[in-house]
């Protein structure tokens, strides 16, 4: 008897499904570090419940503002991390809008334990940055953030600069400005956020550089992705990066930039958690701690990613209005 001969037809039928199953589970990992970069969209009513499923690996989120997303209830398993997105245009301003907002929320029972500060202050507003002079940011820090740490024990993240050399230089100038305002400690912080858009080698190098500059502070990677790359390259970068971040004991949290539909992405369809129809992509499901879905997102607008840019610009404009830009 040659059982292998009889099994051959059966194996030929089963092999494709076995390989698919293996591919779906190979990249399914879990981690308590994972969070969500929440991006509001016109599909919030159908897409946001995906992040709220009890089986997901997500434990925290931020939305670039001082207030939690309306579609994510405070009773969910996702803890909210507010952000002071920008600062008034004048370093001599006396506004305390962010401080007042967070203090009010805490007084009302909100469990706010961490706060993020200044989204890419060295970056241009056209790309989602807050474009803030270092001295202005330092002055606003002293008014709006330092009291939260001193009086409420809330942990503060240093400004989340871009991954370019300009980011490191901006942080140096910020530290100098902080020390001029508070010679006994400057702008005291508890962790440092990192942004990265590029290949893994550059990512690992940048993390090492930030660790060397701030060896006493844990790192939060609050944005990372591989822009404009082919799907297989994005997935390879994702898997390599996730495994690396989970191994690093000085990385406390991370959040992939991809919580949107592929047709709204401004970093390439392959980075999106959702297809243009709102279904989880392989990467999206992996990130949540699930199996691959076999679904791939695609551009619906020729790759322009206009919807996401419009959303981010709305965040910038909203922050400017809320902070009273131009007020002395």
General description of the model:
There is one protein chain. The protein is α/β, with parallel strands linked by helices. Helix content is 41%, strand content 12%. It has helices spanning 3-26, 44-51, 97-107, 134-144, 146-152, 165-181, 200-213, 231-247, 282-288, 306-322; strands at residues 35-37, 60-62, 79-80, 83-84, 114-119, 155-160, 192-197, 219-225, 251-254. The strands form three sheets. A three-stranded parallel beta sheet has the order 1-2-3, with no helix packed on it. A three-stranded parallel beta sheet has the order 4-5-6, covered by helices on one side. α4 crosses α6 (165-181). The radius of gyration is 22 Å and the shape is globular. The N and C termini lie far apart (92 Å). The model is unreliable at 1-26, 300-307 and 323-328 (pLDDT under 50).
Can you give keywords for this protein?
three-stranded parallel β-sheet, alpha/beta, disordered C terminus, 9 strands, 328 residues, disordered N terminus
How is the secondary structure organized here?
Elements: H1 3-26, E1 35-37, H2 44-51, E2 60-62, E3 79-80, E4 83-84, H3 97-107, E5 114-119, H4 134-144, H5 146-152, E6 155-160, H6 165-181, E7 192-197, H7 200-213, E8 219-225, H8 231-247, E9 251-254, H9 282-288, H10 306-322
Parallel strand pairs: 1-2, 2-3, 4-5, 5-6, 7-8, 8-9
Distance between the termini: 92 Å
What is the helical fraction, as a range of percent?
40-55%
List the helices and strands in order: HEHEEEHEHHEHEHEHEHH
Q: What is the CA-based Rg, rounded?
A: 22 Å
Mean pLDDT score, rounded?
A: 86
Provide the low-confidence segments as ranges. 1-26, 300-307, 323-328
Give the strand tally: 9
| Widest beta sheet: strand line-up | 1-2-3
How would you sum up the global shape?
A: globular
What share of the residues does DSSP label as strand, in percent?
Answer: 5-15%
Sheet with the most strands?
3 strands, parallel
Q: Please state the structural category.
A: alpha/beta
DSSP summary: helix tally: 10
């Amino acid at each position: 008897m040659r059982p292998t001969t009889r099994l051959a037809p059966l194996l030929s039928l089963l092999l494709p499904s076995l390989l698919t199953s293996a591919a779906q589970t190979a990249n399914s990992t879990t981690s308590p570090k994972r969070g969500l970069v929440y991006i509001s969209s016109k599909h919030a009513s159908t897409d946001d419940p995906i992040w709220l499923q009890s089986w997901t690996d997500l434990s925290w989120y931020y939305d670039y503002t001082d207030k939690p997303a309306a579609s994510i209830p405070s009773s969910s398993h996702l803890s909210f991390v507010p952000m002071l997105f920008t600062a008034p245009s004048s370093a001599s301003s006396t506004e305390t809008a962010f401080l007042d907002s967070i203090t009010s929320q805490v007084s009302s029972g909100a469990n706010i334990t961490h706060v993020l500060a200044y989204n890419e202050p060295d970056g241009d507003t056209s790309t989602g940055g807050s474009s803030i002079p270092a001295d202005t940011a330092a002055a606003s820090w002293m008014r709006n953030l330092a009291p939260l740490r001193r009086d409420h024990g809330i942990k503060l993240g240093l400004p989340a600069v871009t991954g370019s050399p300009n980011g490191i230089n901006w942080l140096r100038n910020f530290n100098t400005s902080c020390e001029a305002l508070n010679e006994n400690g400057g702008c005291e912080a508890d962790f440092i956020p990192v942004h990265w858009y590029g290949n893994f080698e550059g990512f690992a190098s940048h993390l090492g550089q930030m660790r060397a500059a701030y060896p006493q502070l844990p790192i939060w990677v609050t944005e990372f992705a591989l822009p404009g790359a082919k799907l297989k390259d994005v997935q390879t970068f994702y898997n390599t990066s996730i495994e690396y971040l989970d191994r690093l004991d000085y990385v406390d949290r991370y959040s992939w930039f991809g919580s949107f539909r592929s047709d709204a992405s401004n970093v390439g369809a392959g980075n999106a958690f959702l297809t243009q129809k709102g279904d989880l992509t392989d990467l999206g499901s992996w990130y949540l701690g699930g199996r691959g879905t076999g679904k791939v997102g695609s551009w619906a607008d020729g790759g322009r990613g206009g919807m996401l840019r419009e959303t981010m610009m709305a965040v910038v404009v909203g922050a400017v209005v809320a902070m009273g830009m131009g007020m002395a």
